Amino acid sequence: MLKRTRSLLCLCIAATLSTPQVSYAEMDLPDIGTAAGATLTIDQELIYGDAYMRMIRASSPIINDPVLNEYIDSVGHRLVSSANDVKTPFTFFMIRDRNINAFAFFGGYVALHSGLFLHAHSESELASVMAHEIAHVTQRHLARRMEDEARRSPATVAALVGSLLLAIAAPQAGMAALTATTAGSMQASINYTRSNEKEADRFGIATLARAQFDVNDMPRFFGRLADEYRYASKPPPMLLTHPLPEDRITDTRERAQAYPPLRVQPSISYHLARARIVARHAGIKSDAAMDWFKRTARKAPPKIQNSFEYGKALVYLDTNQLDKAEAILDKLLEHDPNNNFYLDAASDLYIAKKQPEKSVKLMESSLKVKPNNAVITINYANALLESDKTDEAIKVLQRFTHDRPKDTNGWHLLSEANIKLGNSAEDLAARAELMALNAQWDKSIQFYSQASQLAELGSLKQARYDARIDQLLVARDRFMALQ
User: Catalytic residue numbers?
Assistant: First the structure.
């Protein structure tokens, strides 16, 4: 299961210094104005971002898919390492929602709706949306908007932050809350948002260029969305929170044309991710998914044809047509034996065929090529568990959750493994961590308290549980103080 990519400031500075000089278009960027430090510090943004992420985990259908997470992290990391003014780590995640949308919030969190993959035709089109959201974070648009509102109203920082965070995920409710807590005019807020949108486009397109994506795919994607929903009675959420007036599209088109032409080859990884979403996360029936693969493949270039075969294999796998799935996956692995999309599917296939030991061997071989890779490691742990090698699985999962404490899949598997061994205390501890990640602090503390009561009196295990309870009490109080 994939670790969330953390791109630190020093890494981004080094990457920026090492990138080649690009077009003069980057020099024509707007004045970013206030740093917003008077209202909200970077440390405060990180605290608010972590709190809101826990709320989202509890309330939204987040896609905890190891290979998809690895893919969006790789694209996100590539963009962040080419962005300016990076002051926070970044976390990219996906929400299962067929509506086209993306949003960013405090602390470097960037959410993508799975519906984006159904409408973006290339990796550069997806990257253009991600670069735009990264720019909202690096230019501190939420904090700057809050500072602008604070100058015109007596609202507290907490009230403003709460309203702005609400506005990210629920624009209508958020704007209503913002109006209730501020004395500023609605029109001023809207105009400020529009200026931020243009600024995010301009910084985003510069990031795209440095990261070697096709900058023309930003106006191309925006223009297609605007044309498709121009007369729609109910536009997608992305057009409600990110309006696309003609001048914005024109601005991005002119800016893209100022960069030297760059021929970008189709990304097989993007199309594999897209196929996985169509097969498993688009909410459509298997027959419809299979029809989509067949129709789309007819118009696609040879370079990405394997992505459609992969999608068919997933449909066969998920509908228990295992021999058909195996025939396709064998060919794909022969062509690209180290591809994590194929390896993950093969692991699922062997487990479905009641041959988990084959998955164990495959993952052990893959780990020699990619030590500590999150996708391979979590598949390895799952295969060990299915092979009744539960003690070995627990050792792998203990290291995995230590290295990736915010990856919920690791905790789920660790809970399952301890249930299998009848280790109630460790099962409770794993479930407590899941509760904490969802901001269910009282439940988390309750589970750890129960685990402590089950542990031997005075043991190191009991001391570990009690120490974690103390940490959770502090975290709960800090979280509650934000409201």
Answer: 133, 201
Q: In the structure, what pLDDT confidence band is assigned to residue 196 with cuts at 50, 70 and 90?
A: confident
- Cβ atoms of 254 and 20 within 8 Å: the answer is no
Longest C-alpha distance within the chain, in Å?
70
Reduced to 3 states (helix: H, G, I; strand: E, B; else coil), residue 284 is: coil
Residue 273 in any domain: the answer is no
Question: Does residue 432 belong to any structural domain of this protein?
Answer: no
Cα separation, 9 vs 88, in Å, equals 7
| CA pair distance 71, 54, nearest whole angstrom | 22
Spatial separation of the C-alpha atoms in residues 17 and 130, rounded to whole Å: 22
Phi, psi dihedral angles at 111 (to 5 degrees): -105, 140
Query: Is residue 428 pLDDT above 80, yes or no?
Result: yes
Q: Is residue 418 within a helix (H) or strand (E), and if so which, with residue range? A: helix 408-421
Q: Whole domain around residue 217: which residue ranges?
A: 9-257
Does residue 240 lie within any of the structural domains? Answer: yes
Q: Which two tokens stand for residue 373?
A: 């890779």
Asked whether residue 197 is marked as a ligand-binding residue, the answer is yes
Instruction: Report residue 107 as tokens.
Output: 């602390």
Q: Which residue has the tokens 């600024």?
A: 199
CA distance 236 to 244: 12
123 annotated to a ligand binding site: no
Q: What is the number of domains present in the chain?
A: 1
Q: Is 412 annotated as a binding residue?
A: no
Contact 445, 469 (CB under 8 A): yes
Provide mean pLDDT across the span 451-461. 96
Is 160 within a domain? yes
Total-model pTM: 0.84
User: In this structure, how many other beta carbons lie within 10 angstroms of the beta carbon of residue 479?
Assistant: 17
pLDDT digits (tens, 9 = 90+) for 224-251: 887 775 655 555 555 455 655 677 888 8
Q: Which token pair is 410?
A: 């690791």
The answer to whether 278 and 289 have CB atoms below 8 angstroms apart is yes
Query: Percentage of the chain with pLDDT > 70?
Result: 79
- Beta-carbon neighbour count of residue 427 at 10 Å? 21
Residue 44: pLDDT band by 50, 70, 90 thresholds? confident
What is the DSSP code (8-state) at residue 62? B
Q: What is the pLDDT of residue 242?
A: 60
Q: Are 171 and 61 in contact (CB under 8 A)?
A: no
Q: Which of 131, 139, 142, 144 is nearest to 252 (CA)?
A: 131
- From the number of C-beta atoms within 10 Å of its C-beta (0-12, 13-18, 19+), residue 482 rates as middle
Q: Identify which has the larger pLDDT, 312 or 48.
A: 312
Phi first, then psi: give them for residue 41, nearest 5 degrees. -80, 165
Q: Which residues, including other chains, have CB under 8 Å from residue 294's CB and lie 6 or more apart?
A: 308
